Amino acid sequence: GAAAQMGGHLDRLGHPLPSTANPAEFMLDLINRDFSSPEAVDAILDAWEEEGRGEEVARPPTRAIMTRPPRRARQEAQLWILLRRHALLALREPMLYTGRLGLILSANAFISMVYFHTREQVQEQVVYRLYLFAFTLVVPLVFHAVVVVALNNEFSAIRREIKEGMYGPLPYVLATTAVQAAMAFALAVCSLLPAYAITLLPWSSFPVAVPVVAAMLVAYECLAQLCSHVPSVLLGMVLYLIAFLITFLFSGLFVKQSAVHYPLRPLLLASPMRLGYAAFSKVVFEASPPYGGALECEDCPIALRIFGRCGNKLPPEEQLQCDAQTDEFPRGFYCPGSTILQCFGITGDQILRTLSFMYDAADADCDVYAATAKMLLMALALKLLYLSVFVLRCRAGDPPAPRLHGAARALGGTPPPSELRTTIGRKTLARVASVERATPPSTPPPSSERTSARLSSRSTEGSHVVAPPDSPAAAAVARFASFDPAARRPSMDRLRTNRTPYELTLLDCSYDIRVSEAAAAGGRHGARRAASLQSCLPSTLCLGSTRPKQLLRDVSACVRAGHVLAVLGPSGAGKTTLLSMLTLERGPGTARGSVTLNGQPLTPDRFTRYCAVVGNAEDHWPFLTARDHLRYAIDLHRPSLSRQSRRAKVAQLLEATGLSACRHTRAGSAFVPGLSSGQRRRLSLAIALTKQPSMIFLDEPTSGLDSAAAAKIMHFLKVTAKQTNIPILCTIHQPSASVYEGFDDVLVLAAGRVAYFGAAAQMGGHLDRLGHPLPSTANPAEFMLDLINRDFSSPEAVDAILDAWEEEGRGEEVARPPTRAIMTRPPRRARQEAQLWILLRRHALLALREPMLYTGRLGLILSANAFISMVYFHTREQVQEQVVYRLYLFAFTLVVPLVFHAVVVVALNNEFSAIRREIKEGMYGPLPYVLATTAVQAAMAFALAVCSLLPAYAITLLPWSSFPVAVPVVAAMLVAYECLAQLCSHVPSVLLGMVLYLIAFLITFLFSGLFVKQSAVHYPLRPLLLASPMRLGYAAFSKVVFEASPPYGGALECEDCPIALRIFGRCGNKLPPEEQLQCDAQTDEFPRGFYCPGSTILQCFGITGDQILRTLSFMYDAADADCDVYAATAKMLLMALALKLLYLSVFVLRCRAGDPPAPRLHGAARALGGTPPPSELRTTIGRKTLARVASVERATPPSTPPPSSERTSARLSSRSTEGSHVVAPPDSPAAAAVARFASFDPAARRPSMDRLRTNRTPYELTLLDCSYDIRVSEAAAAGGRHGARRAASLQSCLPSTLCLGSTRPKQLLRDVSACVRAGHVLAVLGPSGAGKTTLLSMLTLERGPGTARGSVTLNGQPLTPDRFTRYCAVVGNAEDHWPFLTARDHLRYAIDLHRPSLSRQSRRAKVAQLLEATGLSACRHTRAGSAFVPGLSSGQRRRLSLAIALTKQPSMIFLDEPTSGLDSAAAAKIMHFLKVTAKQTNIPILCTIHQPSASVYEGFDDVLVLAAGRVAYFGAAAQMG
After folding, report:
1. What does the pLDDT look like over 165-191, one tens digit per residue?
2. Which of 302, 450, 636, 999 is 20 to 30 A away from residue 1076, measured at CA?
């Protein structure tokens, strides 16, 4: 109902709104099941339904005319605009093309250097040239994996734009395909250039080779596009790598078509690489000049060749080569001084025909143009499949199914439209209408007298606010603080209540970085972007010419024992920089100043012993439950407690932080369903409290929480600080009135400078002195942040406030210095061996639970290697033809687990933040962690080795006698590569870490002994060859298996030939000529001693394992009969140890706390580089800042209320009574900007297309009895809303029967009815899990795992996907942007697509107006950015989303959390902007709000409050009290 009417509803429920309460916060407090009993919440929900059933039907939903929206761009115009946009993206976004071009060029240059000797056109280099071609093509295909990530990230933006009708799927696909085709040629050129330039491939073949390779790259990029539609980006990458491995296996290099098992042959024929490899090989070999080292056999007289002999014309070895030709193998050449195994031919055709006996990739009869056409057909098939999936995913969901009543339900029919409006829904709307009729416009809402003035009730005792002693929060904290199960050791078990007071003092703290001239000129946005770049690259490398820039300047403050200090400021003010400096984080800049704890410098050691940090909500182990986290933390922090005591402590903490109901729910993450964001934040706080710290730092403790939960957390912090007498410092982004109550002191920053520091209750007095009196209806924090926000206030006005604070500080005298008190010894932590044991248990549990680490990989490796073993199924036959294929089987059996090691990089990179926090806080040391993980890693390496080898042994019948030796060999190799993955996980960017690991893997695979012999490697690269763990493991594994194999059939000993005849090198008529040639081919270097009846010498390898290894060693270093298996295993373990030590050094370096701020040097000390005495550390401004705070406290008697307490937040009383609207003053900047945008009309000739539809056709969205059901498992249903949420997350990716087992229906929404009228803003409120997101998804027709029912109409007509596309706009989360396009670029392209009828000048003016209206003018040339790319702040991206939506001129706007990520001033401005926009354009706006402050609440006309999926209130916002 109307927001103004909610107070009256609460009165009727028996919960009168207190005069000091914000209605939204009060209501959310009542219906939050984490802090209120389920019975009380259900009573409120039941009361709403009962109240709705007893009233009559009033005004039905309006069925008005829907005017035609502005004409969008035509298909061809959309195509042209998208072509320009994606061409720009192709140049700007490195993951798509530009970065890959550089990587491919570098990697292929390295590979060409490895095969440098192939530039010599000799017989020994023929096979190596074939391998060069393979790796030249493989490198760009591996890097296609990053396309999966890039496209997966972009899809949310694409889907939103298509759903809103900005363009259609077909123009998008055509535009990206055109860009893709063009860039495929660029990728092909970069792939081939190094090989042509370094190894001297024939340039005449280049124009033909480029289209062939480009066609192959297009096919694989279409495959990557298809994999990008897998919901999990990691799973998509894994699927692409599996597909790549399969096609690489079937490339024609590792298995011939005749050797593939029949069921698998279709996969072989569907390999684009097989076609591209064969075509590329033919193009290059046929264009090559004649190879040296071979002569034509025609030099032998024809008369003698009739008898198959050449007399004495040729030496025996060369003559044998000429005589070896047959009808199937017409050689016609010989190689003087070489064996027949190293003689391939003179011309390209001869070489291809010779190689074709071993490799399908060498096909002299390949039709290059037909192969290219086939690859393009495969690309087209993949593109069509991608298009179908793309359209399916972009398709809007169905509107809610109408409810069937009476006979219609029984017969399965559809009721008439009039019956759609069921009892509860109709009477809900009736009640709203009756309340509006009963409230005359001139009468203020009944609850306007009770507007939020909570600050006036603040206790005057030391500026403290203590929760009532009978409140649940205070009782929970008191129980935890006084909990003492082991009375024999009270000093260790009892919190240090009011014993040793601690105080943190910071004096004149500054932070400088070096930025480029352009970044410095770009203001704080440029500085932030430069700081982000500096964190990963040296400044000289990434910034060019630089100069210093201050992010913090002379910040002084103190946090006293038992106090909570809140650091406030708009985005970019320096809050995070200050917190990082105080918590000794290592950053790109230089910190200066003094930071002391009880007067002693805050060193890394003191920080570890006395401090705790609560970071962001993702610093957890996703697969451990809340109880697991606390159990392990208590075990590590409080080892002296008994097991029973530790369990009781865990229970007390779970109760105190409201996590008891979800104690068995795993923490979860962005990829793993689990606790909500707010619950994870409370879990972080609980973990910090297990340490019993003397100082707590919190980073945004209220972000991600609803108002009630945020207020509870702040009360909990305040009571904790008071009862344990410890200081708490926290950064707050958007403090509401109830959150502000939890502050004792406030430090306000703007542009890195102090705007105010002192008691929270005294900030009003400071504003009075500045000439900015605090209005009686204002929240002090919001008012102050509004004044110092440079996005909405002039820079001169902000600088005046900052200068006034410094000037005021210079005119006062020094008062109380920082306390230098005794620091008591903290509780004893667990010893090293105890830490090691606890961590062993924890990481063993993680190894079993987390799929990315081990369990998922075990299953993937087992499946993939079973497939590979089926490909090489015929190698179970111990015959000569299968010898080389068995060697290839060994290679792929070892390669698969190494490729899947790439996911370890992601898993460990995600975990590092949690590990670093725990180590930094002293929970355990780096050494116990590394030893524990190494022990688990070694054990799991054996499990991985067993899963890798089992399919090969079981399917291809490898000798089981070799299994016990083979497993340790493979395990040692896997440990070495896992240590390499651990090292790569420390690269700050997880994607860059994965790329580095894959590059290292490719290099070691290249040097595995299969593709290049040591003698053929260029000398500077030989160390890399010797440092390849796979080379050692491959050779050792091959020897172990071949030597244990039974004798191979198809070969006989040459001793069967009489010795007398062998003296002359012939066996007379005892053997046929071909077999005799094989016996005669042996030399001192090549002592064969066997022959193969019916086979050529190229397919004869030996009888015993030793003979086979020695024969293969002529071609492959991986077959080494002299390999020492135990020495090779020891070398791999030494490599693993070296990598582990390097990892440990990087790990310790990254975990090491930063240095405390450097003291400022004054006078002669600065000139001489000395250190000033301690007394000089407290400089003028810092000392006088503290003096002013102390003097204000002394001047304020305890019995006198603070001067500003009369002006506390009561904004709702100023709400206009005209239609429950709040309209910004006509001269306000926000109203002026919206008015300019709404009335802007540069093209007066076409006003209907240019002007917003101000007060013309009113639109109204109505929802009646909307419900949403999913099917969940019995356990999930029993687990309440947390279990339902987890089940819904799982259902979104797997069928319910597959992932949930036995199921039953569960309602996430139940009979929700409401309406959004033209010109109104409806806010949907509710605690976490109430159903806000589910309702918004249903209204925006998102496809979900459940079933939606009810009626949703727009102007009385059902909201279908077509109407939604034409009339509605959605503002989603802040990341739905193109990271490398600027804010201006986004709006320019959106205007071009939505408003094609405007002239170019008009569109540019529209863009400028929107940038001004949303406060983005100053950063219009800043790229949007993302989690991986620096750019706009989160709040600025949210405003950019709103601006993009407004380009459409929609008739209905949906917003998902429009104020999240914004500071209070920006949030209030956005809500005012929305309200003025709704009023002046006469369109309805619906938004979900998580934590509304008083100023944000002013922007609501109506409020819909949900709890557990049911309506707790709907009506005017002003009436909720």
Report:
1. 777 888 889 999 999 999 999 999 999
2. 302
Gap between the Cα atoms of 594 and 1160, Å rounded: 8
Tokens for 761? Answer: 């209750």
The single-letter DSSP state of residue 95 is I
Burial class (CB in 10 A: 0-12, 13-18, 19+), 815: middle
Q: How far apart are CA 1184 and CA 299, in angstroms?
A: 104
**CA–CA distance, 819 with 831 (Å, rounded to integer):** 32
Q: Are 503 and 513 in contact (CB under 8 A)?
A: no
Rounded Cα distance between 605 and 588, Å, is 22
Q: CA 1516 to CA 1501: how far, in whole Å?
A: 6
Per-residue pLDDT band for 700 (boundaries 50, 70, 90) equals confident
* Strands 1452-1456 and 1368-1371, bridge-based pairing: parallel
Q: What residues are paired with 1353 via a beta bridge?
A: 1262, 1358
Q: What pLDDT was estimated at residue 1209?
A: 34
Please give the residue that has the higher pLDDT: either 66 or 848.
Answer: 848
Contact present, 575 and 737 (Cβ < 8 Å)? no
- Cα distances from 559 to residues 37, 563, 717, 789, 821, in angstroms, run 36, 7, 14, 25, 14
What pLDDT, on a 0 to 100 scale, did the predictor assign at position 223? 95
Which tokens in the block code for residue 436?
A: 């509006």
Q: Which of 395, 392, 83, 62 is nearest to 226 (CA)?
A: 392
Structure tokens at 627: 């109880």
DSSP β-ladder status, 695-699 and 728-731? parallel
Q: What are the tens digits of pLDDT across the range 1315-1370?
A: 998 889 999 998 877 888 889 888 888 777 888 888 888 888 888 877 877 788 88
Chain segment 281-338, per-residue pLDDT in tens: 999 999 999 988 888 876 544 444 444 444 445 666 666 666 665 555 556 787 887 7
Averaged confidence pLDDT in the chain: 75
Question: Which is nearest to 843 in space by CA: 934, 910, 762, 781?
Answer: 934
How far is the first Cα of the chain from the last one, in angstroms, to the nearest whole number? 12
- Cβ contacts of residue 740 below 8 Å, gap of 6+? 454, 455, 566, 760, 779, 780, 781, 1209
The pTM of the whole model exceeds 0.90: no
- Angle at CA 457, nearest 5°, toward 455 and 461? 100
Do 682 and 657 touch, CB atoms closer than 8 A? yes
Backbone angles phi, psi at 1053, to 5 degrees: -70, 145
- 3 state DSSP class of 971: helix
CB 892 within 8 A of CB 898: no
CB-based burial label for 461 (10 Å; 0-12, 13-18, 19+)? exposed
> Nearest 5°: phi and psi at 767?
-65, -35
Q: Annotate 636-670 with b (16+ C-beta within 10 A) or e (fewer).
A: bbbbebeeebbbbbbbbbbbbbbbebbbebbbbbe
Q: For residue 948, which amino acid is it? A: S
Task: Give, to the nearest 10 degrees, the angle between helix 902-920 and helix 883-900.
Answer: 30
SS3 1314: strand
